[in-house]
Design goal:
Elements: H1 13-22, H2 28-38, H3 53-62, E1 68-75, E2 81-88, E3 93-101, E4 123-127, E5 131-133, H4 142-146, E6 148-151, H5 154-170, E7 177-180, H6 190-201, E8 213-217, H7 221-229, E9 235-239, H8 245-251, H9 254-257, H10 260-274, E10 278-284, H11 292-305, E11 311-317, H12 331-343, E12 348-350, H13 364-372
Helix pairs in contact: 1-2, 5-6, 7-10, 11-12
The protein binds S-adenosyl-L-homocysteine and iron/sulfur cluster (SF4).
The site of S-adenosyl-L-homocysteine has 16 residues, from strand 8 and strand 10.
Length: 379
């Protein structure tokens, strides 16, 4: 049955080669298919016109070329944020968001410049999902509120990036950064997430630099240590939100299992092993964790464990969700929080809440799709 076939994007190049070899195909065929999928971004067997039709038919019989179907695509009023709700082959829903920063691309074939020209920082940053739902149950998170459905396969993670890469290619642009901060906890689906990144990283294929990825974790200690040991070039962000364990555990239940000292020890281990900078994420909630006192507490926690030049704090005003009573911080409080951190030597950026008008907070669209059915979300 077609449903049970893996998708093309679930296979590594060696796995694809082995499959083709088992069919008696010449070894260069796997590379042709790989380049078709990851360089030319072809997503249907008939697009592979460089293959004999018998091979195309066999591929179609054994592999699925569509891992996900867009159900709806919303654009923010300023056109800078695009959010897509996808249906997976088993009917689950996930989301991915494209955030555009800086002026339009001017096409430039020079690889040295990464094809990017013009003044200022031009970024096309994708936020992708690793699970349908999430098991971690963070109280302020729309995905956490919907519970865990299932892990995404590596192919389903890869396919989100290829989907936007195709859209951008049509207007002469490309993805510049990928943040693994959509639905789900990436370190709760460790293998598939890292395999997806490796697949997109392959210089023979999509060739997307590992340093252009950032994984965000709620703080799964064993996986942070494993990630450090494996010496990935991928960036790491830790969702902290509170420097006091009781407050943190009241919002992020995982803090009962991995309290702050264990988490910070693991982060220290990561920084020592990799000498890479780590980012802390902090959703600013009015009157809860946005006070100067909270900022001083955070600065003290960071200094206790880490060299401050290898840390950064991303503070994001809370995105309101249906089942969480907290409110977003005010602009003034956010600035005070940042300034207090900086006075204490910790660098901090206040991030914009992108696409608030299209519910770009992760999980918000999928929750609605699950509840209301899909009729309102047809493209
Ligand atoms: N599961 C991972 C990655 C996905 S969530 C993690 O928790 O890190 C990505 C980021 O969005 C996390 O920092 C998370 O805490 C934050 N987040 C979730 N819901 C939010 C909300 N309603 N407002 C602001 N940030 C939110
Ligand atoms: Fe899961 Fe991250 Fe949401 Fe927590 S914040 S429920 S870990 S997606």
């Amino acid at each position: 049955m077609n449903q049970l076939n893996p998708t093309l994007y679930d296979l590594s190049l060696p796995e694809l080669s082995a499959l083709l070899e088992s069919w008696g195909e010449k070894s260069y065929r796997a590379r042709q298919i790989w380049q078709g999928a990851y360089r030319n971004l072809w997503d249907a067997p008939e697009a592979f016109s460089n293959l004999p039709s018998a091979l195309r038919a066999r591929l179609e019989e054994h592999l699925d070329f569509q891992a996900l179907q867009p159900v709806t695509q919303l654009e923010s009023r300023d056109g800078q944020t695009v959010k897509t709700l996808f249906r997976l082959r088993d009917g689950q829903h996930i989301e991915a968001v494209l955030m555009k920063y800086g002026e339009a691309f001017t096409p430039d074939p020079s690889p040295a410049e990464g094809g990017v020209k013009g003044r200022g920082k031009i970024r096309r940053t994708l936020c992708i999902s690793t699970q349908a739902g999430c098991a971690m149950g963070c109280t302020f998170c729309a995905t956490g509120q919907m519970g865990f459905r299932r892990n995404l396969s590596s192919g389903e993670i890869v396919a989100q990036v290829l989907y936007y890469a195709r859209q951008l290619a049509e207007i002469g642009e490309r993805v510049t950064n990928v943040v693994v901060m959509g639905m789900g906890e990436p370190f709760h689906n460790y293998e598939n997430t890292l395999n997806a990144i490796a697949r997109l990283n392959d210089p023979q294929g999509f060739n997307f630099g590992a340093r252009r990825f950032t994984i965000s974790t709620v703080g799964l200690v064993p996986q942070i240590r494993r990630f450090a040991d494996e010496q990935h070039q991928v960036g790491l962000a830790i969702s902290l939100h509170a420097a006091d364990n009781d407050l943190r555990a009241s919002m992020l239940p995982i803090a009962h299992k991995y309290p702050l000292p264990a988490l910070m020890e693991a982060v220290r281990y990561y920084v020592e092993r990799t000498r890479r900078r780590v980012t802390f994420e902090w959703a600013l909630i009015d009157g809860v964790n946005d006070t100067p006192e909270a900022a001083r507490q955070l600065a003290a926690l960071i200094k206790q464990y880490l060299p401050i030049h290898l840390t950064h704090v991303n503070a994001i005003p809370l995105n309101p969700t249906e089942n969480f009573r907290g409110r977003a911080t005010s602009r003034k409080q956010a600035r005070l929080f940042r300034d207090t951190l900086e006075k204490n030597g910790i660098s901090c950026t206040i991030r914009l809440r992108r696409g608030i008008d299209i519910q770009a907070g992760c999980g918000q669209l999928a929750v609605r799709a699950g509840r209301e059915g899909e009729t309102r979300f047809q493209i």
